[in-house]
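ugh ok fine here u go
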Amino acid sequence: MIFLSIINHNHDHLIVSNTSLAQIAENNPVIIKSNTPASAALKDFAGSHKITLLDSDHGLGFGENNNFVFKYLVNNKIISDDDYFLVINPDVIIEPNELEKLKDAIAGYESEIFTINLFYDEKFEKPELSIRRFPKLTGPLKGLLKKDYRSDAYDKKTICEPLQIDWAAGSFLLFKKKSYERLEGFSNKFFMYFEDVDICRRAKKMKMPLTYLPGIKAIHKGAFNNRKIYSKHFRWFLISYLTYHFFS
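structure:
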């Protein structure tokens, strides 16, 4: 079974309008951890679709919020050792049939972590640079200046079969339950940004492969707030960038 972990940070409207998520919740456990007080609309949405809404401990970082969800599942004996823990952004839209394809795909590969093929558009014509090699010092900074350029990104157009990769964006990371446990979840050193690079790097050191599944698709409507230099997101990005390269 796949448990979906969604972190809400003022994304209430986005989540409520996600009809695909409502359909997925009919047959799959969905947990929303609200990092900001949940609106009445979000509470109604969760209640109507049997979604677990954790509306407490606001103000945590991205990784710490997902760890919070995982601990909730473990402490309440909801998740078992054979299950999977899916970290998925509230702005990622995956159709129910694609999630079912994912379930079939992971059964055939000896991997600890998985990711899928994310796109910016509904026609699946603009692939996101969501799978990458571990960043060198200047790579992420160049990516800030140009949205569709990363020297460390894999060329998705050349990948037709499942491939083991260095790291993938935290907008969609699927962990075996035991694997997330072994990794002790995301590091609390990172409030937002680079926690995905860090957990994938630690996984590789522990010989826990991460597999990219190009045949499974979803849409990621990312805001890329870290490119606005005077924003708090840019500050979080810069702090995490320095932490990853110099203090981790």
